[in-house]
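In the design runs reported in the main text, the only information available to the sequence generator was the tokenized backbone. The following block is the verbatim input for one such run; it is reproduced so that readers can re-run the procedure and compare outputs position by position.
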């Protein structure tokens, strides 16, 4: 239904494609927690799952083929939460059907596909928002504002820690693009956004320590990536599929006049982290830690659709983050620092440290 035929007081009718861990949460949020939106359809080839979500949320439009959902004229916008390797085909179909999209990260499971998606969306008349929800998390929003206001001076170093409590099942890993593409993209996006600078070069190390089966898909379960930014600032990111002690997301930005830490700090400075014994305040998973962010990113999407404007996170942000992830992968494989622009290893001469531009 077009803007001209819909009464502006009516809610935006939304369909959710893929109702697994993430899609089910988006569907719940759209059923009452997001002003101006109405969930009218869900689609997933897993019939039992899609029926369960449809029944729980009282949604009449339940489909095992997402194309049937797209064929509905009254569905104006969709949330795409199917696996990353279905993305390109699905975004093309949504585009052809004229649906606005809030699409889960990553843009695609690899960089060439992500670039094709970005090309496909060039000049599109529909709105496309990417699900980098950390940009909507109140703590990250505040930190970003303080950094932009210059409260810590010029940012010179960023540390980004990402640890899931448990790794995803093997079935998910195969279509995910791997640790850097699937998970570290959140941190690479935060790095660009918080530092206000593009990542120029990366050097990555990684290994498969906890889930040997991930190696079947060429994936790792612990990775570390050093970052160098265009303005000369530096950073470190580490990521683990399994902490065993909870969902652990921490970021610190060091500036010339202070530092900002985003995460959880306890009164007692001794923190004992024993696997499977949560005798302390802990965050179980991303759905708990970023509950507000998932709701607020959807609210932002719906507000843009209702009031006009451009989403704060677009496909280009997704491509930039994937370029960093792909360079990290190339570095892991070559054992050499890799240029984000060329995706090729850089020689020793190029690897000379840069003078930091201090303004
Ligand atoms: N933003 C975040 O914090 C966050 C967190 C988790 C997952 N994700 C992203 O969300 C997406 C889904 O991840 P998940 O953890 O929910 O995975 P999941 O495996 O739990 O769920 C994926 C669902 O998609 C369905 N599906 C598969 N092919 C489909 C198709 N052709 N059409 C419709 N549905 C299809 C599956 O049956 C399954 O129910 C991934 O891209 C992932 O990267 C984002």
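Verbatim output:
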């Amino acid at each position: 239904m077009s803007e001209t035929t819909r009464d502006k007081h009516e809610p935006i009718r939304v369909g959710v494609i893929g109702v697994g861990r993430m899609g089910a949460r988006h569907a719940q949020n759209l059923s009452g927690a997001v002003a101006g939106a109405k969930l009218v359809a869900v689609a997933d080839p897993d019939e039992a799952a899609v029926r369960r979500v449809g029944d729980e949320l009282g949604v009449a439009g339940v489909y095992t083929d997402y194309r049937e959902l797209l064929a509905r004229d009254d569905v104006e916008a969709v949330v795409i939460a199917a696996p990353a390797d279905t993305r390109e085909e699905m975004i093309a179909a949504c585009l052809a059907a004229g649906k606005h999209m809030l699409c889960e990260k990553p843009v695609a499971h690899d960089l060439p596909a992500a670039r094709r998606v970005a090309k496909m969306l060039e000049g599109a008349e529909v709105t496309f928002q990417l699900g980098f929800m950390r940009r909507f998390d109140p703590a990250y929003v505040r930190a970003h504002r303080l950094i932009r206001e210059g409260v810590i001076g010029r940012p010179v170093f960023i540390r980004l820690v990402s640890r899931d409590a448990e790794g995803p099942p093997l079935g998910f890993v195969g279509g995910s693009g791997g640790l850097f593409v699937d998970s570290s993209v959140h941190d690479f996006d935060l790095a660009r956004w918080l530092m206000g600078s593009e990542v120029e070069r990366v050097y990555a190390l990684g290994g498969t320590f906890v889930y040997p089966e991930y190696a079947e898909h060429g994936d790792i379960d612990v990775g570390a990536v050093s970052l160098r930014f265009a303005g000369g600032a530096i950073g470190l990111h580490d990521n683990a599929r399994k902490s065993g002690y909870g969902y652990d997301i921490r970021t610190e930005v060091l500036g010339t006049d202070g530092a900002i830490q985003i995460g959880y700090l306890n009164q007692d400075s001794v923190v004992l982290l024993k696997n499977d014994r949560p005798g302390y305040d802990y965050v179980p998973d991303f759905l708990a830690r970023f509950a507000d962010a998932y709701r607020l990113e959807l609210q932002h999407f719906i507000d843009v659709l209702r009031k006009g404007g451009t989403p704060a996170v677009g496909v280009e942000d997704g491509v930039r983050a994937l370029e960093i992830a792909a360079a990290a992968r190339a570095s892991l494989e070559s054992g050499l620092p890799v240029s984000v622009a060329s995706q090729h290893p850089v020689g020793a001469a190029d690897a000379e440290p840069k003078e930091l531009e201090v303004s």
